[in-house]
Amino acid sequence: MSLATLPKIELHLHLEGAAPPAFIRGLAAEKGIDLRDIFTEDGGYAYRDFTHFLSVYEAATSVLTGPDDFARLTTAVLAESAAHGVIYTEAFLSPDFCGGGDLGAWREYLAAIREAADRAEASDGIVMRGIVTPIRHFGPERAKPIALCAAETAGEFITGFGIGGDEMAGKLKDFAWSFDMAREAGLRITAHAGEWGGAGSVWDAINDLGVERVGHGVQAIEDPALVDHLAETGVVLECCPGSNVVLGVFPSWESHPIEKLRTRGVRVTVSTDDPPFFRTTMSYEYGRLADTFGWDEEIFAQLTRTALEAAFCDEATRETLAKKLEPSI
Ligand SMILES: [Zn+2]
């Protein structure tokens, strides 16, 4: 079994956070912006701790200023994902960073992103769908125009609504208005919870927002009743173990709860979150999971089946993906 070429489905990827360092360096050079400080000698992103990570992330993404930049970003990110066997990816897109939440501007950014995604699908066979996310620490009022952007552009490409940003800021229930609007527009619902927040934050995402999936959600392991609830209801966790280990949510791969959650019947999936920032790829995640927990072909096949079932795409796309996966799942 070659883990690198195994076809994969990724459900949790921040488009800007997936920007390859060489792409950001090139764009900064074109624009005459000096970003030398944010790169290591071997060309990766350089940061000391979580706070520094946030400032390096902000500096890197500050060079992305127009629809054309986002089109080029999409091309670079999808090429990288496809190189690691990803055949379907769902990317978080933030209208806050694509036109400041203005609907007209958002439509222009989205058209550019979509065009790049269509080109990548034609050349590399990778399918992309978008999940619109307001930024939690910008507050619930700021989320409303973002929800409107999501609702107005919901369709074949924009299929989900989530929330990113600082998980410790404010309460999820204060965003219910925005989530209701997204749901009424036919969008599927996920939310970051249970990464930095405890099991209670996962309960909030379930009870206050009615999520079908939880971004991370791994702190659920603290609460046996929640683990049972997840297993019984089939709410899917978008686990990103490499991200959690690098950011210190868990001290090591061995201590990451993904295997415990899986064996207790929780529907887990694997994604990379902001891969170059965490020096990871989907192949690397698979390799570490195989090494750490002895995951074999059957377990990876189950993982992919779960991700396929939980993907926020239409049924025709799901069937096409299932056909591509047939020999491996
Ligand atoms: Zn995330």
What would a concise description of this structure say?
The protein has 329 residues and is α/β, with parallel strands linked by helices. Helix content is 47%, strand content 13%.
Keywords:
single chain, 329 residues, alpha/beta, TIM Barrel, eight-stranded parallel sheet, 13 helices, 8 strands, 13% strand, globular, binds zinc ion
Question: Your description of this structure?
Answer:
The protein is 47% helix and 13% strand. With 329 residues, the chain is of the alpha/beta class. The chain has one domain (8-19, 64-317): TIM Barrel. Strands 1-2-3-4-5-6-7-8 form an eight-stranded parallel beta sheet, sandwiched between helices. Strand 5 (188-193), helix 7 (199-209) and strand 6 (213-216) form a beta-alpha-beta unit. Helix 3 (67-83) runs parallel beside helix 4 and helix 5 (140-152) runs parallel beside helix 6. The chain is globular, with a radius of gyration of 18 Å. The two termini are 13 Å apart. The model has no long low-confidence stretch (mean pLDDT 95). Residues 12, 14, 164, 192, 215, 273 line the site of zinc ion.
Order of helices and strands: EHHHEHEHEHEHEHEHHEHHH
User: Which overall shape is indicated by the principal axes computed on the Cα atoms?
Assistant: globular
What is the share of helical residues? 40-55%
- Find the structural class using helix and strand composition: alpha/beta
Count of the domains: 1
Radius of gyration: 18 Å
Each distinct ligand: zinc ion
CATH 4th-level superfamily: Metal-dependent hydrolases
As residue ranges, the low-confidence spans are none
Mean pLDDT: 95
What's the arrangement of strands in the largest beta sheet? Answer: 1-2-3-4-5-6-7-8
Quantity of strands, as a count: 8
CATH topology: TIM Barrel
Major beta sheet, specifics? Answer: 8 strands, parallel
Q: Please, what is the oligomeric state?
A: single chain
